[in-house]
């Protein structure tokens, strides 16, 4: 956001006249030429009484001082250099201001559009209008979605099981840290080659491999769970899914060695162990207003019915059913929406401040000579004023503000709600930009009436183009996507459009502001302003070379002229002396 202090005095508090020797900023590359000019002048004066034809004496005789003349001729060069450096500095500041806006946009995105953020705002589950609280959370946990009915839910039953193979080995006292060779007939290295659910699974073991190592390795390679329990002295293999449709087959692969067969026999009782089929869970649920339980069969222990998600961890006795209380969390949802609106207002207020700044043309980038006469605080205050208005009325930022404002105003398809229904409005004062106000009472009332519609208005994804980005859609396709998206989804698209750091825009481009200003982390700045700065830097470098050449040229010419005039002066003195002698005779 803008860091310009718009309250600074409108008059020029540090007025210092420019001189031909001024160099912008801290660039002192050529300042020595100015110093040397004045030094040479001083040294010439100091030797004028020696009686010899020193430069100062000859200059006085010829009517001019070489150093002074060169300095005078170089004034226009130094003035132009100052102008080049000032232009370069302004471009750098403009780039920095854009990058500041990019950082703020991406910070907002990281807070609310990153799935790993605790404030993630692009999922309906991030705005749950109800809280589900079970009486026994060790047996079942629950989440109430926005379509749930508040009240008490009860559940008991037998959980679904996975297809499995279990066996207690003949050996006792095994541990997961024991060497694997104790299970495979003493083989210290080799390959366990299995067929698991028709898939070839190989695991290479060494003399240092433990039982736990092999169990984990086979699990990672096969997609099912191999394990050994030290507590029950039991080897197990469990399929990754539960229910009657889950299956499991484990056998030594064709061509496998004897160590593989020994491992299966010692751990699982057979080289071709038989699995126990998985079973569906049988649950009995009673919802608010019901007097009896309804039986349901589920292949998974994690399922959702009538807006309530159940995650069953263990069998629940009919004599001790778990009660789940679903209560309103409207205040929590309102609080979260208010937080997002506040963060959005901070973002858009900063952008609007940048757009509405007024340029004070009394302030120009400081030269080195000017900075040398000011304190650090004065320099900072001055530079702040110089930067003020750099992005005033900027087209990209203006379009960004317009896009963000429209994201709230345009109707979201299928929800039946408007921005006003959510208690949201923008100020009629154009100086407020896209800043929002939230009527908490109105939002609360709408949430109580239809929480699902409110959350969908904010978070729903496009059904036609759920995963495609704007960069991969035509204008008509994106308009369809836009109309179907919730407000926060639209804001996410807008941030990507302007501040994406990935090359996912058309032709591999990044966000519009990033393309314009680049990023500080870019190894090579190929942005529009980056290229401009490169050209300006080259222009400064080339002009510094020209200044050096000009100084040499002027010094050579005026020295030659001075020499000629000195000789003429000497001849004139000689002739005068001769004439004087002749007349006296």
From TrEMBL:
Any one cellular-component term (Gene Ontology): bacterial-type flagellum filament cap
Annotated GO biological process: bacterial-type flagellum-dependent cell motility; cell adhesion
Organism phylogeny: Bacteria, Bacillati, Bacillota, Clostridia, Eubacteriales
Main location: secreted
Protein's name according to its UniProt entry: Flagellar hook-associated protein 2
Similarity comment: family membership: Belongs to the FliD family.
The Flagellar hook-associated protein 2 N-terminal domain, residue ranges: 62-155
Key words, A-Z: Bacterial flagellum, Cell projection, Cilium, Coiled coil, Flagellum, Secreted
């Amino acid at each position: 956001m803008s860091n310009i202090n718009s309250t600074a005095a409108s008059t020029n508090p540090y007025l210092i006249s420019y001189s031909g020797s001024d160099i912008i900023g801290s660039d002192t590359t050529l300042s020595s030429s100015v110093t040397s000019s004045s030094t040479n002048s001083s040294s010439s004066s100091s030797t004028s009484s020696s009686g010899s034809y020193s430069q100062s004496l000859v200059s006085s005789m010829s009517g001019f001082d070489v150093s002074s003349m060169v300095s005078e001729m170089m004034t226009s060069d130094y003035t132009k250099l100052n102008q080049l450096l000032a232009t370069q500095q302004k471009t750098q500041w403009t780039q920095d201001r854009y990058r500041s806006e990019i950082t703020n946009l991406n910070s907002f995105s990281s807070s609310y559009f990153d799935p790993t953020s605790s404030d993630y705002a692009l999922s309906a589950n991030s705005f749950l209008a109800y809280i589900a609280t079970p009486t026994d959370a060790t047996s079942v946990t629950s989440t109430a979605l926005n379509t749930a009915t508040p009240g008490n839910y009860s559940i008991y039953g037998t959980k679904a099981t996975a297809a499995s193979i279990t066996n207690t080995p003949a050996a006792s006292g095994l541990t997961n840290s024991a060497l694997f060779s104790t299970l495979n007939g003493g083989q210290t290295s080799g390959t366990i080659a299995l067929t698991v659910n028709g898939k070839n699974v190989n695991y290479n073991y060494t003399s240092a491999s433990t039982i736990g190592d092999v169990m984990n390795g086979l699990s990672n390679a096969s997609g099912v769970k191999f394990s050994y329990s030290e507590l029950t002295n039991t080897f197990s293999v469990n399929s990754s899914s539960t229910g009657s449709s889950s299956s499991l087959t484990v056998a030594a692969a064709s061509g496998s060695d004897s160590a593989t067969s020994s491992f299966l026999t010692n751990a699982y009782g057979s080289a071709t162990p038989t699995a126990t089929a998985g079973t569906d869970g049988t649950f009995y649920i009673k919802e608010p207003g019901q007097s009896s339980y309804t039986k349901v069969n589920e292949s998974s222990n994690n399922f959702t019915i009538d807006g309530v998600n159940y995650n069953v961890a263990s069998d629940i006795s009919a004599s001790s059913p778990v009660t789940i209380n679903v209560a309103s969390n409207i205040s929590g949802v309102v609080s979260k929406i208010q937080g997002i609106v506040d963060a959005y207002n901070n973002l858009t207020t900063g952008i609007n401040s940048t757009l509405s700044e007024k340029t004070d043309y009394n302030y120009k980038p400081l030269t080195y000579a000017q900075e040398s006469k000011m304190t650090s605080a004065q320099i900072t205050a001055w530079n702040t004023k110089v930067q003020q208005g750099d992005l005033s009325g900027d087209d990209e930022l203006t379009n960004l503000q317009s896009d963000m404002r429209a994201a709230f105003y345009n109707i979201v398809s299928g929800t039946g709600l408007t921005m006003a229904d959510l208690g949201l409005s923008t100020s009629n004062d154009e100086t407020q930009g896209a800043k929002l106000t939230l009527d908490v009472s109105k939002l609360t009332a709408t949430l109580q009436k239809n929480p699902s519609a409110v959350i969908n208005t904010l978070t729903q994804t496009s059904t036609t183009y759920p995963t495609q980005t704007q960069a991969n859609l035509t204008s008509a396709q994106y308009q369809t996507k836009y109309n179907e998206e919730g407000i926060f989804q639209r804001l996410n698209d807008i941030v990507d459009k302007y501040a994406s750091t990935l090359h996912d825009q058309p032709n591999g481009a990044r966000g519009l502001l990033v393309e314009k200003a680049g990023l500080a982390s870019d190894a090579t700045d190929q942005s529009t302003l980056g290229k401009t700065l490169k050209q300006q830097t080259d222009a400064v470098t080339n002009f510094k070379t020209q200044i050096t050449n000009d100084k040499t040229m002027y010094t050579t010419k005026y020295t030659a002229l001075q020499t000629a005039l000195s000789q003429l002066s000497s001849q004139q003195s000689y002739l005068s002396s001769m004439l004087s002698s002749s007349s006296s005779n």
